[in-house]
Hints:
This protein has 15 helices and 12 strands. It has a 5-stranded mixed beta sheet, sandwiched between helices. With 416 residues, the protein is α+β, with helices and mostly antiparallel strands.
Amino acid sequence: MITINTKPNYIVRDDLNAYLIVVTFPVGKVELEDIYKVLLMVDFMNDYSVNYPEEDLFLRALDKNFIGSYNVTRYVYGDESFVEVSFMLPKEGLFDDYSSEDSLKIMKDIIFNSICIDEKYITDKIFYTAVNIIKNKIIKRSKTIGGRITSEWSKILDGKRVFTLTDDDYLDVLSKVKKEDIVNSYKNIILSGKYMVNISGPEVGKSHILNIVNENFASVVNEFTIKANYFPIYDAEKRGLTHLKGEYNQSVISTQYEYKNYTKDDYFTMMLINVILNRQENSFLLKKLRFNNNLVYGCDSLFKPEIKSIVVTAFLSKKNIDKCKQLIDETINMLKDRDTFEEAKRKLLKADEISLYDSLDSKFNDLKVHICHLINKNTFEDEYNKLKDVSYEDVIKIIDGLEIVNTLLIEGEYDD
């Protein structure tokens, strides 16, 4: 458990001509049947409030009051979720008719007086337009081979639907959401009084901004706690081979390599193995399967820490399946050669080092890092350093312990 103080924090950046204000609401674990209750709430908070019930009125209010980059987002880290409201205000004196006090009052009203506060403000047009947009995206995804793969893996790994859903499940969950569910989510999350406010801006105006933020965003509680369960592990089912057919002109083989002794301490070792396999700095899988042997149309790997596994997927002609399976195993075992591993790790870290410098150059990086550390979440720099610490011996331990526990084979009916 982590305890977070609700007193606003201010990060000084004198190279800024504006104040970035971020209001973060803890959500905790969102059960699968509740996911769209929260997502629809976030959608509505982005576009409407009681006093600005239409999108054009809402946008005009933001523009008129010099409120920039307004955004409401839901972040998910393992079993923890957060709703983040961010916006920018210009420095005092930049515009003659600008008042930071007035702008913050407007923001307070927009955040805490959303249409989600009562069903009567969520019109049928607003509600069903949003629901249908989500519905159409799910249906469109379900018709692709990628969507089929994701749904079939959900059936294989989680027959009881504890931690994952199929597209049909998502449509069923969405169909059951009511306006009152969105209102309840809003009251439980946004109106709970549990949130933190973090600000980044120049030294000039710091005291003034902190004062008016305290006036408008003072929380009713001094602190709140979060579980910070960012690395949940679930008991996935083991079914061996699942052989299906589909109306596709190619076939797919997707294999789950599980490390049964996995703990959260192995997270970054398995992450490193996965990114060496699939990221462009090394692209071990693509080089081996396509460039060197021309066996696949495409391939990828995905680290799934919640099931202690790396899942490797290849799109190919069914005549190449056996050879492909053999070469995937060979590719993973390439990392057991110390020189091969060290060189691949060097290339990866070099690319990440460049990305790290880019992120550190961002004017808002200090604020992002500050928020991550408040909730005990790794920053990009933290992850870089943890990957750097992964040793050859760590990698050997994981690779030697990998076991194929599930294989999904979808045979394309038009795969000649």
